C-alpha cells in the first residue's frame, strides 16, 4: 500500500492511493497518512482508482485520517473507486461521512476547489 | 454449471486454511483463497468478495473473539462458493442483532465488518457447538 500527495494549487491536494487496502495495507497506511493529514491545510481529493480492494480496516483508516483534515476545516472527497470497492463503501454508508464522486472533476467540485 | 464441474474434477477438493497471527497472516490467507478461486475459473469480483468475507470474519475472531486460530474451508458447488469458518474464541454470532450506523460505530470494532458480511453473503448460518466452537457458514454467488 502506497500513497503519493500531489499539490494541485495553494488550496488543493490530490492523494493517490495505490495497492490493496486490506488489513495489512490499512496498518501500513494508517500512521503516515494520518501524519500528513494532521498537518495538511488544503482541501483534499483522494484517488482510489488504483485501489482494487477495500476492507473494513481500510475504511476505518480513511475515516480517522480524514477526520484530522476536517478538524482544521478542510474539505475532502473520494473518487475513482471500482465497482466492488464502491459497493463496499456504500454498504457501510461511508458517503455519509466522506463524499464520494465518480471522477476527479466531480470530487473537486464537492470540496469547492 | 458445466464450468465448475469440469474444474472440480480437475482440481478436486476444497481449500483448507488455518489462520493465526495478525494482519499479514490474514492477508496471506486471502491471497491463497483468491488464487484457489481464480484457478477454479471464478471471476475476479467473486474472488474479491470472498476475500473480503474472509478478512472480516477472521479478523473479528482473532482480534475481538480472542480465538487462537481460525480454520477456513472454501469450496465451490453448484450453487456458488461456500466458506466455512470455525474457531474456539468467544461465542459470537455475526448474523444476530442490529449493526450500528457508521458514525456511531466509527471507533467500535466490528460494526462495519458485520455490515459487509451480511451484504456480501447470499446465505449464512451460525452455530455454536457444544464443545465451544463458533461455526459460520457463508455462501456467495460465483458471478
Automatic annotation (TrEMBL), chain A:
Pfam families xrefs: STAS
PROSITE patterns (alphabetical): STAS
Residues annotated as domain STAS: 2-113
Listed InterPro entries: Anti-sigma_ant, STAS_dom, STAS_dom_sf
Highest taxon of source: Bacteria
Annotated family: Belongs to the anti-sigma-factor antagonist family.
Protein name: Anti-sigma factor antagonist
Organism: Plastoroseomonas hellenica
Automatic annotation (TrEMBL), chain B:
Keyword Transmembrane among record annotations: no
Boundaries of every Histidine kinase/HSP90-like ATPase domain copy: 24-136
InterPro entries linked: Anti-sigma-factor_SerPK, HATPase_C_sf, HATPase_dom
GO molecular function, one term: ATP binding
Keywords: ATP-binding, Kinase, Nucleotide-binding, Serine/threonine-protein kinase, Transferase
PANTHER family: ANTI-SIGMA-F FACTOR RSBW, ANTI-SIGMA-F FACTOR RSBW-RELATED
Name recorded for this polypeptide: ATP-binding protein
Amino acid at each position: 500500500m502506497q500513497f503519493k500527495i500531489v499539490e494541485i494549487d495553494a488550496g488543493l491536494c490530490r492523494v493517490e492511493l495505490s495497492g490493496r487496502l486490506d488489513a495489512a495495507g490499512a496498518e501500513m497506511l494508517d500512521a503516515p497518512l494520518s501524519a500528513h493529514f494532521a498537518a495538511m491545510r488544503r482541501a483534499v481529493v483522494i484517488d482510489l482508482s488504483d485501489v482494487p480492494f477495500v476492507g473494513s480496516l481500510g475504511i476505518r483508516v480513511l475515516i480517522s485520517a480524514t477526520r484530522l483534515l476536517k478538524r482544521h476545516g478542510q474539505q475532502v472527497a473520494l473518487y475513482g473507486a471500482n465497482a466492488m470497492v464502491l459497493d463496499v463503501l456504500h454498504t457501510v454508508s461511508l458517503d455519509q461521512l466522506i463524499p464520494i464522486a465518480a471522477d476527479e472533476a466531480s470530487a473537486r467540485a464537492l470540496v469547492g476547489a | 454449471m458445466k464450468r465448475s464441474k469440469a474444474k472440480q474434477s480437475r482440481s478436486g477438493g476444497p481449500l483448507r486454511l488455518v489462520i493465526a497471527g495478525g494482519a499479514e497472516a490474514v492477508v496471506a490467507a486471502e491471497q491463497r483463497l483468491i488464487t484457489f478461486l481464480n484457478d477454479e475459473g471464478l471471476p475476479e469480483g467473486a474472488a474479491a468478495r470472498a476475500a473480503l468475507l474472509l478478512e472480516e470474519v477472521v479478523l473479528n475472531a482473532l482480534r475481538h473473539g480472542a480465538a487462537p486460530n481460525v480454520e477456513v474451508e472454501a469450496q465451490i458447488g453448484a450453487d456458488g462458493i461456500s466458506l466455512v469458518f470455525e474457531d474456539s474464541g468467544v461465542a459470537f454470532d455475526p448474523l444476530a442483532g442490529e449493526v450500528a450506523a457508521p458514525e456511531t460505530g466509527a471507533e467500535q470494532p466490528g460494526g462495519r465488518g458485520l455490515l459487509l458480511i451480511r451484504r456480501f453473503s447470499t446465505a449464512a448460518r451460525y452455530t455454536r457447538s457444544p464443545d465451544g466452537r463458533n461455526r459460520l457458514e457463508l455462501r456467495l454467488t460465483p458471478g
